Model the fold of this input.
Amino acid sequence: MGGGGTGFVNAPLTSSEVRNFKKEIKGILEDPIGTAEQLDQFLGPNIYTWEEMQSIMKIIFSQEERQLIRAAGIKVWEKENPQGPPGEDKMPTVPPEWGQNNEEGRKHMNEYRNLIIKGIKEAAPRGQNAKKAFEAQQEKEESPTEWLDRLRKNMKQYSGIDPETDVGKALLRINFVTNAWPDIRKKIEKIEDWHNKSLDNLLKEAQKVYVRRDEEKAKLKAKFIAVTMRENNLKKIQKHTSTTLEIKLIKTGKRRKIESQYKPSLSSIPGMPAFTVGVLLMTEAAIRTKERGWIHASRIKGPVDEPKEWTITSEPGDTKLTLKRGLGGNELGRPKWSKKHTQDHT
Done:
């Protein structure tokens, strides 16, 4: 430096450092005091030019949030310094002529930095009514449009803030996302710089998630219907198969394995292929009757046709004769019918 004076050299923060810091804070609406304290610690004791502070603020906060912070910072200055210069001069919107190498300029820079920290603490609306305005949560079945309309009504009713102003839009945008249903909130928060997106853009993104949710619900419903129909069709096939196989087994009446190609009538179930049925018959199965033809042996409760033949038997040394009608059995080895009469012969 010429003249042997003392010069100041800044080591400005990098944009990546500021972006990483942004991920650690909750924001001025959710935690204004915590956000202010974290930023104060992050900035440290260094003195930053107006341009450097503007760059940092643009990365961390949206335009509307910066307006809230500036308005709150001006009120803080004017309250603490009623006889001092206007608050607009302490928080200018255009580059001021503050020289960083002179004491007066560095004083302005330091005051500007401190007013930003104080403005963050005071930026969010306070009081019981303001809390009611922003404590609402989106319901699962509530559409994004209905959710945004409810936020607008709450803001007007409880906070007194006009949702059409820049400040109102900033508050709406932040609460619309942070208090949305989890699937919508997570989707939008993945969008880079969503704080700087318009409400219309955020509403469109939320609507996509909401509609996709209905589409997935419709797919699950269709899948459930398809499974139910398939189960009902299988029940019909099983019922038809069971009836047909019973007739086949009754007619077979033998102990052997049956392998047959079975093609049921499936006119009510189009597209179903024929299939092979394998059955192992383990019981004596059928008896042929005059009235009903072949019928399962277990269903015979009484005699069938009485045979006309009579036989007489006796035991050696026994004076009794036994008269028996019929031959005493069928081809399956099971008696069809038997009746015994005894008579003494002297």
User: Anything to note?
Assistant: The CA atoms of residues 178 and 185 lie 6 Å apart. Confidence is low (pLDDT under 50) at residues 240-270, 272-283, 328-346.
